[in-house]
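R.M. (postdoc): so does anyone remember the format we settled on? I'll just put the structure tokens first.
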């Protein structure tokens, strides 16, 4: 709630006072950072995590990487995609976030590879590809 009003400092104070953080706690904080365009803080928090991230964490981090579009974000994005390619092959949400991320960095070939790995493509996956082609001035 504090993040919705832009009170990042108070939200951080509460977050860091929590001793046993779980994926829900990390995810709520990261989502708040994304909503306040604090993408670097999302990556900082991701790197600080001392527990195994779940699907939601990966999606939030990939969205933050897309918002940053810098070298650090690109490296984290590559690490995540290497982890998820086989394990989450059937998770269209994560794979579509990966496509969006790759297209943001102009990595059309890898985005196409990821798209082809989706077994049951939906309109969201096709939309991510079309948006990416448009973003990279590629013909549909």
């Amino acid at each position: 709630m504090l993040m919705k009003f832009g009170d990042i400092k108070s939200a951080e104070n509460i977050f860091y006072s929590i001793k046993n953080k779980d994926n829900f706690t990390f995810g709520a904080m990261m989502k708040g950072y994304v909503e306040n365009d604090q993408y670097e803080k999302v990556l900082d928090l991701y790197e600080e995590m001392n527990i195994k991230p779940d699907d939601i964490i990966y999606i939030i981090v990939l969205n933050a990487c897309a918002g940053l579009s810098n070298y650090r974000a690109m490296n984290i994005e590559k690490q995540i995609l290497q982890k998820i390619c086989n394990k989450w092959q059937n998770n269209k949400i994560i794979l579509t976030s990966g496509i969006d991320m790759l297209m943001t960095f102009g990595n059309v070939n890898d985005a196409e590879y990821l798209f082809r790995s989706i077994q049951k493509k939906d309109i969201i996956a096709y939309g991510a590809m079309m948006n990416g082609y448009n973003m990279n001035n590629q013909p549909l």
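R.M.: ...and that's the designed sequence above, right after the tokens. Also worth knowing: The first helix runs from residue 8 to 17. The chain has one domain: 3-135.
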